[in-house]
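Researcher: We are triaging several targets before committing to wet-lab work. For this one, the compound of interest is calcium ion. I'm pasting the protein sequence and the ligand SMILES. What I need is the predicted three-dimensional arrangement of the protein with the ligand bound, expressed as structure tokens, so it can go straight into our comparison scripts without reformatting.
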Amino acid sequence: MACSAAVLSAPAALRAAAKPNIVWLIGEDLCPDLGCYGNHVIQTPNLDRLAADGTRFDHAYVTGPICSPSRSAIMTGMWQIAIDAQNHRAHRSDGYRLPEGVQPFTHYLRQAGYHTSNVITAAPGVRGTNKTDYNFNLNGSAFDGTDWNQRAPGQPFYAQINFAQSHRVWKRDPLHPVDPDKITPPPYYPNVPAVREDWAMYYDSIQQLDTAIGKVLERLENERLLENAVIVFFGDNGRAMPRGKEYLYEGGIATPLIVWTPPQLGIEGAGRGSVSKRLTSCIDLTATTLELAGIRTPAHMHGIPFLGPNRRDRDIVFAARDRGDETVDRIRCVRDARHKYIRNYRPDVPYTAENADRDVEIPTLAIMRQMHSKEPFEKGRLNELQARFMAARKPEEEFFDLEKDPHETVNLVDSASHRAALQKLRGEMDRWIQQTRDTGAVPEKRSAIERPNEIENRVQVDGWCTRNYTDCVLSRTASSMHVHCSGKVNLVRRSIVTEGGDMQIRFRARFSGVALKAFAWGAITDFDNPKNAKPVDVVPGGEFREYTVDFPVEGHLAKLTFDFASGTGEADFAWIALFRRRGDHRELIKEWKYNRT
Ligand SMILES: [Ca+2]
């Protein structure tokens, strides 16, 4: 009450009017794959215009390659490894609080009279996800509301809009679908049609993000807010592809960063149509936003302002990767203007360690697995560079010259001529880990992990997966793949990428207490369409029987799903076989056999 009275009093209202409004547009899981960053296949006219009228940052990085650690750092201005927020979806149910004195940065904006919101209805037809995803708990919300239109008259506002479009599952862009054959994937992926299809879907999702952002900018313009609003666009982590999201290669941590400022504000470090080659970290968005609001960076924050009168340059950026879902790992990286040093604390955990989400939802990874296996479905094999990602171990250290080798393909850790540069970055990392008292060095407490969702429910048998958000768990018996269902959502899924057409699945199974609702499938370009499902008439009674489902697939098949009815019960599969039919001929694509006979 005291606060809103102050805002309404005349001198305070004047001060408020001098403060710019600040809007963050936060994309999901994307790299600088935009027209304005030189990509000529994708169409992103709205973000291109924002960059043309604002400042494009060419070397911007997130602090972690997964949503929640990255967002935890972005919201506090603290490295996630300094506040025990480095593990994905940790501390959801253990009451963990931020260390004494640490606050989400919106706290300081509120103190300065700002209205803060995490927007839901962002523009006509555009919904923000209202995502927070922090690995800590707060007293109350980090935001005052869900729209800037909830602010008091004359009150300055900070708003963030979280966009879902570029998060998998990707959808085809209905306006300008990207032609997969125009895409050349980076050299560490096999350049095969199915991979290009997956990339086209990624581009399509960014184009839809761009369309949504266009509508939000239109709303701001219609509400005459652009004269006094700073607009910041960035992503929370890199693209959801192998070597992207979840990894500390450029594909996991390089983010687009565009800042548009009203010309009349004359903000130092920003300008119309300017390009910054400075290293920038998303941890600095916090301090920068506070700086623009006239608030000095709180002493405990690691972020530094990169705009405004107190702006400072950063000559190195850091990033960290720790547990992601059931995959326990610890990786750290430091990058200066030219080199990147990666330290793998768990070389025993392969890049492609089992993970029930990425193994099902990332067709490019499935393709690489298949091409790497002894029975490739796609013609051809991975080359040496591509196959390196499939290795059983990671190197302990990696060191790259990003100027000469932007795709990080040549590990220079043993190169004599790079010893000095390597030693420098090793030292920087040692200092960072010491100064932050890296909380990732301590094994995570069981109580910090949401169970059974994050661990026990996420099981694979031979590539068939159950996961969190489902109520069934897989296991393997001596003679079957066994499914125990115990709730509403009971899905068993796996990826397999193969040319589509008239497909057929046959399986021998028995069901007791629970029926199979449907068999469902996904294509790379139509991954999660509820129409791609067929009911299966299950005969209950505990006897093994054979079932057959014919299903059509356009493009490349990517996913198979057994969708069980809700309830408690058991199912066992003796074998499952996938075929493609051409006329009278039936070609076996793959068979999974669990019975001994
Ligand atoms: Ca994300």
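Researcher: Any quick observations?
Model: The first helix runs from residue 2 to 8.
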